[in-house]
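Weekly structure sync - notes
Attendees: PM, LS, DV (DV joined late)
Agenda: review two folding runs queued last week.

Item 1: First target. Sequence and structure tokens pasted below for the record.
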Amino acid sequence: MSDRSHIEHAREARRHYELPSYQAFLRRLGDTMDTHLRELISAAGIPENQSEVEWRIKAPASFEQKAGAADPEDPGRPQYRFPTDDIGDQLALRVIAFLPAQVEAVEQAIADDDALRVNEVRNKGDDHSDARAFGYQSVHVLVTPEPSLGAPSPPKDYRLPRIEIQLRTQLQHVWAELEHASRYKGAAGSRVSRKFDRAAALIEMVDELLQEIDDAAAGSARQEPSRRPEGLEVAAEHPRERPVGNRLTARAMRSFLAEAFPSAPPSRGAGSEEWIRRHALESGFDTVEALRDAVRSVDVGAIDRTFREGVTWERNQVRCLDDVLLAVGGAGYVTLAERLVDEGDDAQRQKRPRVLGWRLKRLREAGVVA
């Protein structure tokens, strides 16, 4: 396909895209998705004043430019043969939350939602090379509405398009908007670009600190009784409503492991951390504080001494938490752990309960478990 053919292909795609009935459909779809996302955010426990939802329909000129792109693997063909079917950001929504854990919670809520089918998840923060370790941070989730969403029907001969959902913290959003206005529109030189990179590194650090502060505040509020002036009457006692920062997200699990087992080496790779997080969730510990209570309920030092001698495996943080969950759950945890072994892994399905049974016996012999 010649360059001229690409241009004609893009122009024809724009004519289809600009059809008034299709544009009206995209607006109705945007309203439907806006309402649905707000419901997901509320169900995830994020206070209304700690999140924003906004959306836009792709401008016709931008759509035309994207429709004219060549296939990277075959430049003679268009990348999008049927642009109104294939281009995934005709409708894009953005969720802006206060805390990193809230961003993770929204991402998880979308993944668990029966009304949206997740096609792809891209963490833009993972796209940077070693030469530029910090920069644009955002999670992009590409979804297709399922029938249960109740989305409006597209015009005849059009399909329901895929939808892009961007997830950011407030600080990430400010950085991205400023960079878009400066760096990518030619107003920023190399000196300003380096400042953007420095700002991105600081933003990542501040986001982490704010999350740690929020989690620490949640723990303190749980432990300390509230104090009121004498004579102040209240209608009823309610536990403090926690923002989702206290949920046991992947980020929260990493922080918790380092906090609970500081003398143990960290696990090798995020896979084992996600593995133990799944075990904790299935055991009923879906918040950081619930997991803290589980660790407090057992003698961690005695567990460590029981397995410090006579074993060949590394006593890393994930292994320490696995032993705590075993001590708390007993035989029930052995059954649960067997169920959580990946299907098809027959060797591990036989080994896991046998090893856990031996470890539980050792804990009983040591008097750690009744």
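Item 2: Second target, run right after the first with the same settings.
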Amino acid sequence: MVRRKNVLFSFDHSIEAQNLLKYLKARGFHPHVVEGGTADIIYQASLKRPDLVILFDSPPDIESHEVCKILKGQIETQSILLLVLDGETLKSQKLAAFGLAADTTISRFLPVEELYAKIYSLLSIRELQLQLLESEKFAALGRVADRIAHEFRNPLTIIGGFAYRIKKKHPADPLCQDYIDRIIKEVCRLERIIDQVADFEISSKEEYEFIDLVVLLQEIREEFSAVEVLIPGGNVRIEVPKNDQIPLIRANRQGFKSVFTNLIENALDAIPEGRKGLIRIETGIDIEEGILWIKVKDNGTGIPPEELDKVMDPFYTTRPYRIGLGLTLVYQHIRDMGGRVDLESEEGKGTTVSITLPMILKAPIPVHLER
């Protein structure tokens, strides 16, 4: 089942394009449609960074070889899959010799079912490639986590201990007190980094239990009940499901709780001072797909398009007081549960983090009381 459905669709108003677009939408795709020519397709592909570009080769407006040449020739876009629907031409054959051709070139006149099968196959391969890269990245981080914790924790404990002793010995020296407070603050920050990095090495699968998602979200909301004071001049409301018929989830309770704690903290950071903030958590199930989905939405400042692909990388952050591991840990916990995390964001309007998890067959559906 393909989850990654970020597709750019060049629409030339032909019958073939209309039929394929309709077929994709009927199967849950929401392609970004481009009706312009070559320049517009290249611009939109560079801006949107889709997983796949479906390109109807329609001269003179669209020159598929030019699109392939430019997108495959740029480092930031060369990983985009290109599907040209027309049939090989002499130009595309020449470009292939330089590695600048489409990933697949087939006839646009094939039955729509065959075209869809090719699209599904390309996206499935890309999905597996990205999962492999992500697994290797987190495996490498996990291997160094234990060494970091061991090598750094003891020296930090000694530094912090001596700093407290010096602070007590010189209570009347304001300059000394200021320096020591800074040392202690940075030691605490480094200890928090070590604790979060060490989480990558902790396997909690043996501690899985059935969890009532709605009750857990209500508990988290209550813990953030004083959230207004965290944002000067702000007024933030957190909405969680009240009585959704969501089946129990099998997970490590502490790890699963940290997922939503991190997401809410990130949402709070994104809400500017003075704005009436809203953080809404929605849940639902898709019986046909066999998944349970959770969405955490905020009306904050949003994430720039060029940063969307980086925000889940370890230690990447745009906040000077953050260490850049929150979303990384969210991703790891959900991945360990067999799920996935997707982000959608629009600058100035907010961000939506979507979590999908496989449903457990015959998992009981709890009865929730209004709270």
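Discussion on item 2: The mean pLDDT is 79.
Action: LS to circulate a short write-up before next sync.
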